[in-house]
Design brief:
The protein is mainly alpha-helical and about 110 residues long. Helix content is about 70%, strand content about 0%. It is built from 5 helices and no strands. The two termini are about 25 Å apart.
């Protein structure tokens, strides 16, 4: 089993990237030094849950469609969160379409 530079097994480090959304992803992104898979999952968590958080701030301001869109974003965020926790734990985290490409770009900046 692969380990991260934190000393944790890779699957546990990947789970931690998603546990508290973008916050745990950001922490793992900065403390992980060598395991590219963990860095990728941390960046993907930051991008996806960060975008959900921003939408959570912007959508309530929109009349009529905002509250419905906010509920859909929240539902999507919870679904992705559960899927990522489970798939990361079993060692096969999901690469999210579009988000994974942005995560790769983010890793290049950190």
């Amino acid at each position: 089993m692969n380990h991260s530079s934190t000393g944790l097994p890779e699957n546990i480090a990947n789970v931690i990237c998603y546990v508290f959304g973008w916050l745990s992803g950001l922490i793992m992104l900065f403390i992980e030094k060598s395991n590219n898979n963990v860095k990728f999952n941390a960046a993907q968590s930051v991008v996806f849950f960060g975008a959900c958080s921003l939408l959570g701030i912007i959508l309530p301001v929109l009349p009529i469609i905002g509250p419905l869109a906010l509920r859909l974003v929240a539902l999507l965020a919870v679904a992705v969160w559960v899927i990522q926790l489970v798939t990361s734990f079993i060692g096969k985290p999901l690469k999210l379409p579009i988000i994974s490409g942005l995560a790769v770009l983010l890793i290049g900046y950190v």
